Amino acid sequence: MCGRYSLVANLQDLEKRFSFSSGDLSLQARFNVAPTQSVLSITNNGSTNEPRFMKWGLIPRWSKDTKIASNMINARAETIDQKASFKEPFLKRRCLIPADGFYEWARNNGQKVPMRITLKSGEPFGLAGLWETWVSNNTDPITTCTIITTKANELMAPIHHRMPVILPKESEDIWLDPDNQDPKLLKELLAQYPSSDMEAYTVSTLVNSPGNDSPDVIARYNP
Question: What number of other Cβ atoms are within 10 A of residue 200's Cβ?
Fold first, then answer.
């Protein structure tokens, strides 16, 4: 699964990397992004990429309330075109969720050890996501998203059996293209990212609490 990540890159670098214009958008460095929080996402309107803030935890359009969001932070790539909650967004409402690291907890002698996983280059990357807008008579519309996961690659397997889908840069435009509704082609994009381009290191248990959101969270930890 993917339940925490970081995005500390500055907005100007993200604009260049993901080809969007920020306009009056503002962005703070985030060292410990957690479910139900507002997260930066990128969609495409058919011609240009657009940055948007969405709540992490997808609420299907047919949901009676928002309580389901905390259980919908991830979508499995293997069944994404079959599940009622994800089938339509998979074809029509896809997004990228920029990150520069994500966290997972390894098991070591019965203890959970938090790990941060990044690209060796240190560059930000795009996580494959879906988005949805939920409308109720009693509240303003809520736009939400979920992060797609797949089976772990060789680097991740000793840490956790799942990992988020990191899209190669050359696949991002295909993923975001709203005119692309070919499920076979889209599912082929949801592959494991090469282990050789990634690294993992231990961090402190500060990451365990969403209230901790400082540079200390991403620091290498040597007990």
Answer: 19
For residue 139, the model assigns a pLDDT of 77
Domain membership flag for residue 214: yes
Q: Which tens digit of pLDDT belongs to each residue from 184-207?
A: 999 999 999 999 999 999 999 999
Residue 55 belongs to some domain of the structure: yes
What's the domain count of the chain?
1
- 49: domain range? 5-218
Task: Please pick, among 2, 95, 132, 145, the residue that the annotation labels catalytic.
Answer: 2
3-state secondary structure the chain: CCCCEEECCCHHHHHHHHCECCCCCCCCCEEEECCCCEEEEEEECCCCEEEEEEEECCCCCCCCCCHHHHHCCEEEHHHCCCCCCCHHHHHHCEEEEEECEEEEEEEECCEEEEEEEEECCCCCEEEEEEEEEECCCCCCCEEEEEEEEEECCCCCCCCCCEEECEECHHHHHHHHCCCCCCHHHHHHCCCCCCHHHEEEEECCHHHHCCCCCCHHHHCCCCC
**Do the domain assignments include residue 139?**
yes
- Residue 27, domain CATH: 3.90.1680.10
Tell me which of 95, 104, 132, 172 is the catalytic residue. Answer: 104
* 112 domain residue, yes or no: yes
- For residue 49, the model assigns a pLDDT of 97
**Is 199 one of the catalytic residues?**
no
Q: Is 95 a residue of the active site? A: no
